[in-house]
Specification:
The chain has 340 residues and is an alpha/beta fold. The chain has two domains: 3-115 and 308-321, Nucleotidyltransferase, domain 5; 124-300, ATPase, nucleotide binding domain (Nucleotidyltransferase, domain 5, 2-Layer Sandwich). The protein is built from eleven helices and ten strands. The strands form two sheets. A five-stranded mixed β-sheet has the order 3-2-1-4-5, sandwiched between helices. A five-stranded mixed β-sheet has the order 8-7-6-9-10, sandwiched between helices. Helix 5 (162-172) crosses helix 6 and helix 5 runs antiparallel to helix 8. The chain is globular, with a radius of gyration of 20 Å. Bound molecules: 5'-O-[(R)-(carboxyoxy)(hydroxy)phosphoryl]adenosine (KG4) and zinc ion. Residues 10, 136-138, 163-164, 166-167, 178-181, 184, 275-277, 279-280, 307-308 line the site of 5'-O-[(R)-(carboxyoxy)(hydroxy)phosphoryl]adenosine (KG4).
Length: 340
């Protein structure tokens, strides 16, 4: 019997109905981009309210598209960690309510592990064991993945996440929200060597990341040290493109080099990459080059499964096969301790 998966960790309200073999029978996603664009960032209160309005219609749509009825469902899965507290709450409360109303078991999913599982979903053979790199708006972490459910945290960002840096740079340049795609689009016509931005921790033997120094360096390049007011800055479109290209090159250099080193150090044959930043074209190209040169297999989900979605909640099928269900007192866990 298929399962229903629910995702509401940040600013996308999503649901999917997934068959036992991983086939997506129906899914739906309501994006909040237009609600947050005037703030050039996700406003937690606005996000939570929008989830409340959208969650039931989105679940309804996914079930209708799958041509199933609630009684056909085996379980209800929901991302309970990590994310914005208000956003997580809406998904968890909806899942628990439906679990009671429809008398279905509940499964809790770690959103970051689900991002990695999107790679397994898009691969015909097993991707495990592998190194898993999560690059999202809130996280940048490396895992040694023994199996879908046995993940060993290797390291992560000590300050900003890669996606957050994209969003902040986009805001400084007054580009559209979300920042990642906007920066990436401009970067395509820019000079990647125009600015030599820092590659923090790139040669550090640990698996940690740091992007706040890079963000500050971009700010200095735009307005100068100590200045915060971006509204008076007049930059030509070529100057903006050069800033974006040089910034993107710095982020991608760090991500590729640290992921590549983890693959070598742990002597695995594969690298999987998930999270919104994994939709980035330049990162995908550079990872491909690294995989060919170093002879490891690279699996990245298609871009629509990199950004937040409910399909990656198919990870719940793995948990169900191990009898790993959540109880009805399931609570949210907005922050994570070492990736879990
Ligand atoms: O995984 P995700 O959808 O949400 C979180 O779990 O955070 O990731 C969102 C992040 C945002 O920071 C967004 O700007 C970034 O992913 N992103 C991108 C691209 N598409 C989305 N960053 C760079 N290039 C892209 N094409
Ligand atoms: Zn995400």
């Amino acid at each position: 019997m298929p399962i229903l998966t629910i995702e509401s960790t940040c600013d996308e309200t999503a649901a999917a109905v997934i068959a036992k073999n991983g086939l997506v029978l129906g899914d739906a996603i309501a994006t909040q981009e237009t609600l947050h664009e005037q703030f050039r960032g996700v406003v937690p209160e606005v996000a939570a309210r929008a989830h409340v309005e959208r969650i039931l219609p989105v679940i309804d749509t996914a079930i209708r598209r799958a041509s199933v009825t609630p009684k056909d469902l085996e379980a209800i899965a929901v991302a309970d960690r990590p994310g914005l507290a208000g956003s997580l709450l809406v998904g968890v409360v909806a899942a628990k309510t439906l679990a009671v109303a429809w008398n279905k078991p509940l499964v809790a999913i770690n959103h970051l592990h689900a991002h990695l599982y999107a790679c397994q979903l898009s691969s015909e053979s097993t991707v495990y064991p592998c190194i898993g790199l999560v690059v999202s708006g809130g996280h940048t972490s490396l895992y040694l993945c023994h199996s879908p459910l046995e993940l060993e945290y290797l390291g992560g960002t000590i300050d900003d996440a890669a996606g957050e840096a994209f969003d902040k740079v986009a805001a400084m340049l007054q580009l559209d929200f979300p920042g990642g795609p906007a920066v990436s689009k401009l970067a395509a016509s820019g000079n990647r060597k125009a600015y030599s931005f820092p590659r923090s921790l790139m040669h550090d033997p640990k698996d940690d990341f740091s992007f706040s120094g890079l963000k500050t360096a971009v700010r200095y390049a735009i307005v100068g040290p100590g200045q915060q007011d971006f509204s008076k800055v007049q930059l030509s479109s070529q100057a903006k493109a050069d800033l974006c290209a040089s910034f993107e090159a710095a982020v991608v250099d760090v991500l590729v080099s640290k992921a590549e080193r983890a693959v070598k150090r742990h002597q695995v044959q594969r690298l999987i990459v998930g999270g919104g930043v994994a939709a980035n074209q330049f990162l995908r190209e550079r990872l491909n080059i690294s995989a060919n040169r170093n002879e490891y297999q690279l699996v990245i989900a298609p871009p629509e499964w990199c950004t937040d979605n409910a399909v990656m909640g198919a990870l719940a099928l793995e948990k169900i096969s191990k009898g790993d269900f959540a109880s009805l007192d399931l609570d949210i866990t907005p922050g994570l301790q070492r990736g879990f």
